[in-house]
Amino acid sequence: MGNEVYTIKPFKDTGNRFLVIARVQDDSLHKEWIKPSKYRNFDLYLEYYGKGGCNFRNDCDFYSEGKETKWPRIYKIIEKYGEHIFKYDAVWIPDDDISTDCKTINKMFKIFMKYKLSLAQPALTRDSYYSHEITRQKEKYVLRYTSFVEVMAPIFSKKDLQKCWKSFSKSQSGWGLSSIWPKLLGYSNNKMAIIDKTPVKHTRPVRGGTLYKDIQGSARDELRRICKEYKVKKAFNTYGKVRDKTEMNNK
Prior knowledge:
This is DUF707 domain-containing protein. This protein has helices at about 30-35, 70-85, 100-115, 160-165, 175-185, 210-215, 220-230, 245-250; strands spanning about 5-10, 20-25, 40-50, 60-65, 90, 100, 120-125, 140-145, 155, 190-200, 240-245.
């Protein structure tokens, strides 16, 4: 496995509107995402970067292998397959330690489209490992409009993925990308959101994966460099909230 996108199962037209792209190692949780299969409204692209002991080819629609870190690899995948990827209405790019199921992902995509979002993420369950309080689920809301979406599990619309994907090559660690995406998307206060209705669990301790062993230099240095280059600062603003009527009716 090298720096090229070594494709084993290439893209084909399946008719699905949504795509999930994940880079997975040997303890990946992606098998949870495709069950129960009756809720499957998305295609799954897996890129394997483990030690070679797993065969996940039959778990997905499209499959490749490659090293490097998440965001530079996603950049290369889109560089090679953009004509196919940009046909999807929305693309979710989660880490492989996200615990969720097919029904939740199905609903997440539907909410994303219903509210015409550009960029979003599912909230994290209250028992998740987390870095930022803003990402933790607030149960009484469907979603909160924010100025921040974490690199752990962002969802992009077709149009806005095209605006942001070239930035993916800027950061080995991913640090800094969540600060520049709002600027690339025009700082809208009703197009970025954290979706509380479909929470997922982050199962791995923060900085507990292989990422920080694989990058050269410091993630904090990358954050400072990128923010300086784009003249931005990290912001955690909440602009508005959509209440969950189901939750209100149950009171």
